[in-house]
Design brief:
The chain is of the alpha+beta class. It has two domains: about 170 residues, Beta-Lactamase (2-Layer Sandwich), CATH 3.30.450.40; about 170 residues, Beta-Lactamase (2-Layer Sandwich), CATH 3.30.450.40. The protein is built from eleven helices and eleven strands. A hairpin with a 2-residue loop joins strand 4 and strand 5. Helix 1 runs parallel beside helix 6. It is flat, with a radius of gyration of 24 Å. The termini are far apart.
Length: about 400
């Protein structure tokens, strides 16, 4: 992007935040194309997936392109697309004159200068191509290519996960209809919308480093929809990223007013079993959506189990709220063996990590609930003797 530095971290955060917060395929597709255009300040984008039936590349989403250009015809002779399907990003710097482009005249009329085609890879298989269109001739730096390739990869995984979730819904509908229950599967409404941001005063190099870290974490979250595996991987990645002794994700039980641990890393079983965490006694300020840093857990009155923390070798603690629909639903806690305070950028980054952790919890819970529903109804219908109709 000539004359303008790319805010790598913020771009990746905005796009991945969007695609991870929904579980229906069509919405994910359009969020990818729209998000990358607005975030990278480019002319347009398009997403093409290989059809499972015809094995041909089909346009499934676009943003910023005219209907006339989209209807120009099938892509069967575009060599840049063919190269991208071999898992290789391809840049055509001057589309109107490059013979690798199939529709050069149409590109000129549309005002397209450069085209970047990036493969979308899922489990080492190319499932489609993400295309970036610019209005001016453009070369992309290696860091920019890394960013766009990362978005394409996370997009591919998000599409696959959405397909799995939709398939589970269709399976539940089929099971219930066997029992005479008319059930139409409805896609879940995205209830998570975070607000964390990290674009104020962050330098170019640090922005790229934070992007790479978030990319690793997002890959971890999207690699499986199994709740235990997902959340354990999340807390492990967060602890290592932040350089702390331990990390825990807690979810709020509104009935008991206790924080229930859903995943932990780096802490002993003895400490984890020290007793229930009451939201009224254990850093209650977190319920006000405050990020709380405790410099000395031995003397702070908001720590519920100071003796257990001392035995564990914990000196300081950071508690970051996880909010859903403007209500605190959980918390991310980081435990350190030193009293070194976090820098302002690190605190903001911790908020982002808490947000992504919250998305992981919600998606995993939704998937777990859907699978439990299928198991329950299959067992019930079998018990009633109508499961094999």
């Amino acid at each position: 992007m000539p004359g303008k530095e790319v805010a790598y971290f913020q771009v990746f955060l905005e796009v991945t935040r969007a695609v991870l917060s929904v579980l229906d395929v069509e919405t994910v597709l359009h969020l990818i194309t729209k998000g990358i255009v607005s975030s990278l300040d480019i002319k347009a984008s398009a997403l093409m997936l290989l059809s499972e039936k015809s094995h041909r590349l089909e346009l499934v989403a676009s943003h910023g392109l005219s209907q006339k250009y989209l209807g120009k015809g099938p892509l069967y002779a575009d060599r840049s697309i063919a190269d991208a399907l071999r898992d290789k990003p391809v840049l055509v710097e001057n589309a109107p004159t490059d013979d690798r482009v199939q529709y050069r005249e149409e590109a000129t009329e549309e005002g397209i200068a450069s085209i970047l085609s990036v493969p979308m890879v899922m489990r080492e298989q190319v499932i489609g191509v993400l295309r970036i269109y610019t209005a001016e001739p453009r070369r992309f730096s290696q860091n920019e290519m890394d960013l766009i390739s990362a978005i394409a990869e996370i997009g591919a995984i998000a599409i696959e996960n959405a397909r799995i979730f939709e398939a589970r819904g269709a399976e539940l509908s089929k099971v219930l209809k066997v029992g005479g229950i008319d059930y139409e599967y409805e896609l879940p409404v995205a209830e998570y919308r975070g607000k964390a941001t990290l674009n104020s005063g962050i330098d170019h190099e640090k922005s790229y480093q934070y992007f790479r870290t978030l990319y690793r974490l997002t890959r971890t979250i999207t690699s499986t929809m199994e709740m235990k595996e997902t959340l354990e991987a999340v807390v492990t990645e967060i602890a290592k990223t932040m350089g702390v002794k331990g990390c825990c994700l807690f979810w709020l039980n509104t009935g008991t007013r206790e924080l229930e641990m859903v995943a932990s890393y780096g802490l002993s079983q003895a400490y984890l079993c020290k007793g229930p965490l009451s939201i009224d006694k254990s850093i209650p300020q977190a319920l006000e959506e405050e990020t709380i840093y405790i410099a000395n857990v031995r003397t702070d009155r908001t720590i519920q189990y100071p003796e257990a923390a001392e035995r564990e070798g914990i000196v300081s603690m950071l508690s970051v709220p996880i909010s859903v629909k403007k209500r605190v639903r959980g918390t991310l806690r980081l435990y350190s063996s030193t009293a070194t305070p976090f820098a302002t950028e690190e605190l903001r980054f911790a908020k982002v990590l808490a947000e992504i952790g919250g998305i992981a919890i919600i998606n995993a819970k939704l998937y777990q609930e859907r699978r439990a529903d299928i198991t329950f109804w299959k067992a019930t219908l079998d018990y009633l003797g109508i499961g094999n109709r």
